[in-house]
Design goal:
The chain is mainly α. It has one domain. About 80% of the residues lie in helices and about 0% in strands. Helix 1 runs antiparallel to helix 2 and helix 2 packs parallel to helix 4.
């Protein structure tokens, strides 16, 4: 298949991995009694899901940035989110780490929304 399309599909796979991480964080926040933060996390999860659905339908369209470069950014974001999830799991600064995950997802959504020209 076309390498550009393959790179876009890889990016969508990475976005789905991020979606799974947000689901994990949301559940952990609920279990920690942080229901307001869990609700906020669910909102970000839904926004990411909508972005995945939008980009899935635009794989053949021109994107404003290379999928490979964006995939690197998304990998870095996933590592950051995973580190924060571990801290939440260990009950270390749960609220602070949740807020940082939400901020990271906001930044991620910003660059993903600008993809399609």
């Amino acid at each position: 298949m076309n390498p550009e399309i393959e790179a876009k599909l890889d990016l969508l796979d990475r976005m789905n991995a991020t979606l799974g991480k947000l689901t994990n964080a949301q559940i952990r926040l609920q279990l920690a009694g942080e229901t307001e933060l869990a609700t906020q996390m669910d909102g970000k999860r839904k926004l990411l899901l909508a972005q995945i659905d939008r980009l899935r339908g635009q794989v053949l369209d021109n994107w404003s940035h290379s999928a490979e470069a964006l995939d690197e950014k998304l990998q870095a974001a996933n590592r950051t989110v995973q580190t924060r999830i571990r801290a939440i799991r260990n009950r270390v600064n749960v609220a602070e780490n949740a807020i940082k995950i939400i901020a990271q997802i906001d930044r991620t959504l910003t660059f993903l929304k600008a993809l399609v020209t």
